[in-house]
Structure formats: structure tokens, C-alpha cells
């Protein structure tokens, strides 16, 4: 396979691509590298390849002329990748796809970037190797080259080496050990010294599952799990981040259709369905909040039927979900209860279908970070949304589920399920 590398710094690559397995692959003819320097195609005596950006701003932008000439001179470019932090994430599936072809081209940007019109001239595929910014595309290109090259037949020596590595089967790799058997008081796991290959294979699978659950749980749904895998993960998972998340359904103060503050009546479906969501994701609790005493009494009667009355015997699963429900008179009482139970005040976040929040939105990523260290109360409104009196009690606001769509009118039950899943997913 030939890698065509368009770069202002070909010397960046030469030593890295000549050592280890990559160097052996070059010697064996499995991989070849073609360096194309845009400076060689500049038309002025200074070999200029950059200029100031239109519209002003800091830095310089790579010019179209030298880059267009450089790319046009590649007879068989194959897929053309532009290394960019704004590209699609590069992953193992992309590496497998690229490894099937005889050629590929990597365009390494520098300075503030490349004139955007280059993508109108050539079929560039912007790719990113991570959510960070580096000085240029060269280091990122090295990552792509190695990920692709090691999948070429004969590169690894043993095909099983590639088959058992991280991401090959959708999981992170299991830990490895070698001699001596004990070092600094740390022994090699006994299972690896047993000689029982079936047990060793099972142990390694479990270690991969545990590592993925701990570091990259979002990979698990796509990993082709067996029933045995699922049973192991259920046992290993523990309480998860969900234990720090609480939900509250507010029936007052909320807005009516005329925009006036009032209260709404609780509904059987809301109580049941949000309770089931809360139990499914292992949440700390679910509060039904209404200032009306008769409504709280109705909620208590409903919960009692399913947790202590006839419903408990006929549907134990429903009883388990409804046991999380706690009727309260107002949000202050909810916050006080969580503070008493957890020893610290929760971060209180409102949800809304409106495309703007007072002071901006608290992102899902930030709220997930909070869940690792403190309780979070997620407040859902009824009627036409939370009243200003309730909004003033919030510490943050989650963005709407569909912020860029004009129609954003899901039921509160659906919204609760979607938002809890976005916060927790398989980390719950």
C-alpha cells in the first residue's frame, strides 16, 4: 500500500516510519511512502505557501495554489484524508476500510488551517484523531498511517495479534503479563499460570469487558455481547453514576397555556413511567412535587397500592419502580431531603423545550462530570413549563431535546426517558 503524504515537513516522518514493524513493512514492500511538499509547487522565489486570512484574524492560512498543484500531481491518490480537529472521528472501522485499498492520501494542514475551497476542488474526507488541537496534521497522520498499515496482510506477523487488540472486537484489550512471575511483590494472576487455555480465554474476555465498562461503556452496545457477557457485566456494573441522579416532576408552580402561574394535576402515566425510567437507570429517587395536599394524598395512595397493597403481589417489577416515588410539597423540600440523605446539596438542573436558558445552558458533559462527585436533581415541568418562581431556584439548565427543530413538544414521560439516557446511557 502506498501512503501519499502532503506535508510541509516531510522530515517529521522519516525516522518514525523507518523503525519497528513499520520499517520492516517498508523493507518487505508492504508499505511505501510518497512525500509531496507544497513548497515545491510554489511559484515565487520564497516558496510561499501561506497568506493572511480574508476577514482578518490571527495567524496565516495555507494557500490553494501550491496545495492544488501538489494534489493534482498524485496519479493514484486513493481516498484523500484531511487531518483536521473538525473532521469525523477516526476509528478502527475507518482503518479497516482504508486498509482494503492500494493507495491513500493524507493532507497535513499547518498554521490556522487550509483555504476551505480546497474541499470544493478535491474529494477530501476531514478526519480527527481526537478532540484537541496540535501544531499540524503530521502527528495525526502518523496515527492514521499506523492504524491502517498494521491491518495490512503480513504486517503483524500473526493475524491473531491484530484480532485480539483493543477495538478489534469492539472492546478494550485485556491486561498482559510476562516474566518474572513476581515483581516488587506483584504476582502474575494465577489463572495465567494454570495452563488451562479455556479458563484463560474466559478470564481475558472478562478483563476486556471490565476494562471497557470502566473506561468506554459507550462501546458495549456495539460489541456483539453474548448472554454470558451480559450476565458478567450486570454483576460487575455496581450502582453506577445513576445513584447520584434524582428526578422531580413539578406540578406547581408551572405555567398554563396563557402563561400564568398555576398548578396541574398529577397523572397516573407520569408517575408510573418516570418511576420505571428512574429504576431502569438506577436513579437515587423520583419526587412528585405538588403544593396541593389532596394531590399528594393521591400520589401516596397510588404508591401504597403498588408497594404495600394488592399491586405489590401482582406486579413486583412495578412495585420496585414505584418504591422510588416520594411525594413532596415543593422543591425546597426535595432539595432538603436529598441533602439529608446524601450529606450535600444537589445541583438543581431544569429541563425545558425552549431554545434558550437564562444565562445559557449547562451541557450534558458537564452534568455527567458532576454526577461523578455529587448528587444532581433533574427537574421536569408539567403544563406549559416551569414558572419563573421555579426557574429562579435552578443552578443550571439542560438544552432542549431538539433545540434546532421548530416542533419540540414531547410528553414529559418521553422527555424524561431521553434526557436520563443522554446523561447516563450505559454508565447508569
Structural write-up:
The chain is an alpha/beta fold. The chain has a six-stranded parallel sheet with strand order 14-13-10-16-15-17, sandwiched between helices. A five-stranded parallel sheet has the order 2-1-6-5-7. Strands 3-4 form a two-stranded antiparallel sheet. The chain has helices at 11-14, 20-27, 64-72, 92-98, 118-121, 138-149, 159-163, 197-215, 227-237, 268-280, 293-307, 310-314, 316-322, 331-342, 364-371, 388-391, 412-424; strands at 2-6, 32-36, 50-51, 61-62, 80-89, 103-108, 124-128, 182-183, 186-187, 245-250, 254-255, 261-262, 285-289, 325-328, 347-350, 376-381, 396-397. It has three domains: 2-157, SPOUT methyltransferase, trefoil knot domain (Alpha/beta knot, 3-Layer(aba) Sandwich); 182-237, Orthogonal Bundle (Trp Operon Repressor, Chain A), CATH 1.10.1270.20; 241-427, SPOUT methyltransferase, trefoil knot domain (Alpha/beta knot). The mean pLDDT is 93. Helix 10 (268-280) packs parallel to helix 17.
Amino acid at each position: 500500500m502506498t501512503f501519499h503524504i502532503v506535508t510541509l515537513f516531510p522530515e517529521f516522518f522519516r525516522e518514525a516510519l523507518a523503525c519497528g514493524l513499520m520499517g520492516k513493512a517498508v523493507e518487505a514492500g508492504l508499505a511505501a511512502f510518497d512525500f509531496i511538499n507544497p513548497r515545491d509547487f510554489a511559484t515565487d522565489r520564497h516558496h510561499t505557501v501561506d497568506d493572511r486570512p480574508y476577514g482578518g484574524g490571527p495567524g496565516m492560512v495555507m494557500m490553494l495554489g501550491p496545495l492544488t498543484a501538489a494534489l493534482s500531481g498524485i496519479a493514484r491518490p486513493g481516498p484523500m484524508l484531511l487531518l483536521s480537529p473538525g473532521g469525523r472521528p477516526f476509528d478502527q472501522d475507518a482503518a479497516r476500510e482504508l486498509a482494503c485499498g492500494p493507495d491513500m492520501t493524507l493532507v497535513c494542514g499547518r498554521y490556522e488551517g487550509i483555504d476551505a475551497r480546497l474541499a470544493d476542488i478535491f474529494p477530501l474526507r476531514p478526519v480527527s484523531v481526537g478532540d484537541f488541537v496540535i501544531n499540524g496534521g503530521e502527528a495525526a497522520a502518523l496515527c492514521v498511517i499506523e492504524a491502517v498499515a498494521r491491518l495490512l496482510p503480513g504486517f503483524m506477523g500473526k493475524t491473531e495479534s491484530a484480532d485480539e487488540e483493543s477495538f478489534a472486537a469492539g472492546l478494550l484489550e485485556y491486561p498482559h503479563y510476562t516474566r518474572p512471575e513476581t515483581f516488587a511483590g506483584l504476582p502474575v494472576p494465577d489463572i495465567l499460570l494454570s495452563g488451562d487455555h479455556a479458563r484463560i480465554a474466559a478470564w481475558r474476555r472478562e478483563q476486556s469487558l471490565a476494562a471497557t465498562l470502566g473506561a468506554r461503556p459507550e462501546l458495549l452496545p456495539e460489541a456483539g455481547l453474548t448472554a454470558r457477557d451480559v450476565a458478567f457485566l450486570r454483576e460487575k456494573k455496581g450502582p453506577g453514576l445513576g445513584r447520584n441522579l434524582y428526578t422531580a416532576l413539578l406540578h406547581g408552580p408551572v405555567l398554563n397555556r396563557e402563561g400564568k402561574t398555576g398548578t396541574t394535576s398529577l397523572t397516573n402515566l407520569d408517575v408510573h413511567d418516570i418511576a420505571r425510567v428512574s429504576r431502569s437507570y438506577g436513579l437515587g429517587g423520583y419526587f412528585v412535587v405538588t403544593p396541593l395536599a389532596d394531590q399528594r394524598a393521591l400520589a401516596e395512595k397510588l404508591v401504597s397500592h403498588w408497594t404495600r397493597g394488592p399491586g405489590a403481589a401482582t406486579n413486583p417489577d412495578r412495585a420496585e419502580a414505584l418504591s422510588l416515588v416520594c411525594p413532596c410539597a415543593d422543591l425546597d423540600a426535595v432539595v432538603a431531603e436529598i441533602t439529608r440523605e446524601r450529606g450535600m446539596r444537589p445541583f438543581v438542573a431544569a429541563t425545558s423545550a425552549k431554545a434558550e436558558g437564562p444565562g445559557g445552558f449547562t451541557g450534558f458533559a458537564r452534568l455527567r462530570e458532576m454526577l461523578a462527585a455529587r448528587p444532581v436533581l433533574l427537574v421536569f415541568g408539567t403544563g406549559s413549563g416551569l414558572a419563573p418562581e421555579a426557574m429562579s431556584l435552578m443552578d443550571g439548565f439542560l438544552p432542549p431535546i431538539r433545540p434546532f427543530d421548530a416542533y419540540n413538544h414531547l410528553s414529559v414521560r418521553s422527555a424524561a426517558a431521553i434526557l436520563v439516557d443522554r446523561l447516563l446511557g450505559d454508565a447508569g
